[in-house]
Amino acid sequence: MYQAVLCNHNIDFLVRSFLKKTDYQLEQTICLVIGGNGTLHDSLNALKKHSQRQLPLALIPAGKNNSFAKNMGISLNPSTAFKQIITTQQAINYDIGSYIETTHKTEGYFLSSYNIGLEAYFASLNAQENLFFNKLHLELIGYLYNLLKTYMNQESFSVTLRINGQYEFFKKAYLVSVHTHQPCFDPRTHLQVPLGHANDGQLEFLVAEKMNIFKFLFLALMARMNKHVRLPSLKQFTSKRAHLIINSLEFGEIDGQEESNRYYDLNFEIDYYPFWFSSQS
């Protein structure tokens, strides 16, 4: 018999308040999240921050961005998603990413992706300006407008990546993406098509550089069609950990949540967390 703790708004406070109550049997407790990617991301970070015991996370999708649920086989129907939870017999560990930002002395975890540069800037534009186009039912026009605006305004930047025991230097990078191997296709941007499997214990690092307008539009088109392409300007690496340095102010986003423009000095490492659902239900 398991009991569920509901995680919704004011998540950090909610988790801290719950964990202070010692009358709960934590070994028979799961954290039930009702929301989208952002709520799940915040719940994960609050539990990792405040709990020594890893309480399994369960999810009933109810957000604007439910790509995690879609890609992990969780139904978007609340009744079906709840059935997937109550019929589960044990938690399953899935890969997550961890990061430590030494410049700003912050640390945290991500379910799917940590993006810097072009993709993060594009997502920021979509969040701010697509409301106008959506009201006119011109979503594709809005997508193309923001795509061109991103390309025109996003300047290249230098990247230093220490990975697999060696340094990689990029003088004209436009995008840096670090993601777990679980599917993390984001319907808001269509720019990222991840690889690999949900439990392979590796992080995928993608750096896009020297991108002219034709390569950029081709990549965006292929990504919107959910097709993976390999171009010479796209450098991919796989590792359990890496050190990333960017000495210019760039847009960033973590699991689709915007970060302020900043410099980056990041140490990434693969981690895992237990989830409570069955994609077979």
TrEMBL record:
Residues 1-104 form the DAGKc domain. Keywords: ATP-binding, Nucleotide-binding. Pfam families: DAGK_cat. GO terms for molecular function: ATP binding; kinase activity. Its cofactor is Mg(2+). InterPro entries: ATP-NAD_kinase_N, Diacylglycerol_kinase_cat_dom, Lipid_Phosphate_FormReg, NAD/diacylglycerol_kinase_sf. The keyword Lipid biosynthesis does not apply. The keyword Transport does not apply. PANTHER family: SPHINGOSINE KINASE, SPHINGOSINE KINASE RELATED PROTEIN. Belongs to the diacylglycerol/lipid kinase family. This is Transcription regulator. The lineage of its organism: Bacteria, Bacillati, Bacillota, Bacilli, Lactobacillales.
